[in-house]
């Protein structure tokens, strides 16, 4: 089936006085929800008899939910005096996102901000709202209330061109051959990398001449994953990419994800098989009954809590 047409306060001006030398602007304080991080180095200001131009502080991260734990921020390199460029918009923002099916609240006032260049695990038991969230970000389902921004744009035709979505269930005709699917994606998506798809399928041992109807469930999922990861997208949404394959094949699936990952892109990967994916994750989101329990870097668990993400997950959900 065809994919759906997927400040911060300015530092006060320095007085026009050659002595004493101006001091660097103070760094912005972390938000209440964030774990304290080293502040970025302020831009150096050369001493001069004329007033120095304003030097903005480092931008303050958007206020996160109380349950959020900020990822470590890199230290900014010193910049010359003068106006700093405006910070880039986060890759993904979900604001007060709610989805209701009849009497069932599938997602309940969900808020999240995800920067570019992260691999994020969307973790939770079955029925926690993972699939609902991914469908809305992909634009194949609409929220009851709230909004979603991808690269600063509301979900629509422009964002669908930037999002590559792997749904949980098969989405192409079983009567087609694997090579037909490659040709279809190459025609439909301008960003589809056909040589890369050939290479990944060969690496996974998939025969491109085979009919999809002859493939095992695990092989079908491999083919679908290759089709998704061979696009040059900004955001990859993978719904249970290893949920239907045998344990021996999971390493191949994760290898394909890492092989297809490009710096600057973001992957959101939903799963309840935490042990299998925790080594490839930068951050994680815990969902239960449509509500976010925690959004944090994996190091919050491994370094501060002194345990594995899988053990933390099992303790949180008593499973």
Order of strands, main sheet, comes to 6-7-8-3-9-10
C-alpha-based Rg, rounded:
23 Å
CATH architecture of one domain: 3-Layer(aba) Sandwich
Instruction: Determine the number of helices (DSSP H or I, runs of at least 4 residues).
Output: 9
Could you name the CATH topology of one domain?
A: Rossmann fold
Tally of DSSP β-strands: 10
GO molecular function: ATP binding; ATP hydrolysis activity
Keywords: ATP-binding, Nucleotide-binding
InterPro entries: AAA+_ATPase, ABC_transporter-like_ATP-bd, P-loop_NTPase
Protein name: ABC-2 type transport system ATP-binding protein
Could you walk me through the main structural features you see in this protein, from its secondary elements to its overall organization?
This is ABC-2 type transport system ATP-binding protein. It comes from Parvibacter caecicola. It holds the Pfam family ABC_tran. GO terms for molecular function: ATP binding; ATP hydrolysis activity. The protein is α/β, with parallel strands linked by helices and 319 residues long. The chain has a domain of 189 residues: P-loop containing nucleotide triphosphate hydrolases (Rossmann fold, 3-Layer(aba) Sandwich). Helices cover 25% and strands 19% of the residues. It is built from nine helices and ten strands. The strands form two sheets. It has a six-stranded mixed sheet, sandwiched between helices. The radius of gyration is 23 Å and the shape is globular. The protein starts with 91 loop residues before the first strand and ends with a helix.
